[in-house]
């Protein structure tokens, strides 16, 4: 059994695919064929570009333990966030953002909007596998501004679980079939737990009779609950009828309040207790990832008092002397990790780092970032640990004195930052498997090996000498500049449009297997193959 | 200029199964349903029907997966599965070729992938799996699914 997966990045450079639609088309497979795999599509938008192409999830084979998972690499923070991955479509008519035909699909943390006047359903659940299927939506945000039919419509005989989602502005002035969530098929089974639904015509609309609604907060809808529900516990609603004689008719602003209703921030501003877990174990945290325990709050948000547990760390951790433990953050690290003397810990990140990691004297730990690193990794004296970044790096790695020893920088996606050592940059292996846009510079010696398997548009520069080996397997349009000696080997397998310049000597080999568009060699003997 | 992302490989249902290389992926799924002794006749019939429909909906070489704006190109693993055909028409017009091929069950509409496909068997792709064609060529290779 294996956990398979790839990435989507809408920047069209960093990820394995530029859209979820392309990933779905390319990776469709029988997940039960190899002994039981799961497949995770991790979505991010490094450059804040939305995914605008609808996705039909179809043509796979899935099972209970062999499901497809679509996750957001970054947390939206419980409120619509245009800086993390989202779907934004403007198509009308019959087109949907998702059409889900597969039987076991989990979607977590994805944001959806369709802002054009049309009659589309955002997400259509159309698996026909019956009660055994499991289509899940967790921590998603769905919104519209005009005539959308539904955010989610369950239109076939399957089991759907929706929890910790926020849905709002689904055509409050529309007709009877306009709803936040609609259970349409007579044999559909739905479990809707701890959702917050605001400003829709109908909040939850069930025509199947097989829908459990527990601990949902449905506010400011024309009719919050409509239909016949299988069961309902601890729901809160501001208009319409009681869903199953167990709900609570409440008044917004009296019984509960949103943090910023006008600004579409539907976090609650104080605890709004329901009961303990009504979801059969599906709900263990809230839309922000805050743990739920004891008495759960109604709706998608679990209120956390000031000083309580939080999921996101937006500030800095500052250690005056030594930090020798491990730092493990499962989602975004937005602040700084700062050690005044020594930082010898293991810094392990699951998704994106946007802060800085700074050891004033030395960093000897291991920084392991599985996805984007946008911050600064900085040591004033030495940086000798292992640094492993699997995806985008666009920050700065800087050691004022030495950048030596066992440092391994392995950037499998693009490198858009700067690697800079004032004295030496040597003994290391720098391997960049995709595009390099930044620069590598050493004021004294650059003696490591540099391998770039894709395009280079940056600068590789040593003010005194470069004694390593540089291998560039695709196009090179940057500059390699050595002011004194160049004794290493430079090999470019494809076209070169940049400048390779050594002011004094070149004693290594210079090989171009492709087309040399422009090469400037100052006083150097040149042999072309 | 619009860029058509074209499905450019065989679907797993048409390739040998990992589990049973003597069968295609489709045949192996059918085999597992037929050999599942837990299923009654009705459930088995429904499952076989679903798989048959899924097989008919699968991506096939030439299918228009999506349309991209001029200059977006392909990234990462995309050239392993797709070809990119650059055509001198607007992005808005090109998007019309992404429409689905069947409508059922109002108010919902099923997306059976795409109505149109491009027969790129005669198109020479460069090393990056990209080709630029003119409008006459585009119209000659544009096909409607039957």
Structure overview:
The complex is a heterodimer of chains A (529) and B (146). Chain A is an all-beta fold and 529 residues long. Helices cover 2% and strands 40% of the residues of chain A. Chain A contains 1 helix and 56 strands. In chain A, helix 1 (20-27) links the parallel strand 1 and strand 2. Chain A starts with a strand and ends in a 17-residue tail after the last strand. In chain A, 54% of the residues are buried. Mean pLDDT of chain A is 75; it is low at 404-408 and 516-529. Chain B is α+β, with helices and mostly antiparallel strands. Chain B contains 5 helices and 6 strands. Chain B has helices at residues 25-35, 41-57, 78-81, 91-95, 135-141, and strands spanning 2-7, 64-69, 82-87, 116-118, 130-132, 142-144. In chain B, strands 2-1-3-5 form a 4-stranded mixed sheet. Chain B has a two-stranded antiparallel sheet with strand order 4-6. In chain B, helix 1 (25-35) packs antiparallel against helix 2. Chain B is elongated. The model of chain B has no long low-confidence stretch (mean pLDDT 89). Classes of the chains: A mainly beta (529), B alpha+beta (146).
Strand content of chain A: 35-45%
Q: What structural class do the secondary elements of chain A suggest?
A: mainly beta
The parts of chain B where pLDDT drops under 50 for at least 5 residues are none
- Ends distance of chain A: 48 Å
DSSP summary: helix tally of chain B? 5
Rg of chain B computed from alpha carbons, rounded to a whole number of angstroms:
18 Å
Give the largest interface pair and sizes: A-B, 44 and 42 residues
How many distinct helices of chain A? Answer: 1
Q: Which runs of chain A of at least 5 residues are low in confidence (pLDDT < 50)?
A: 404-408, 516-529
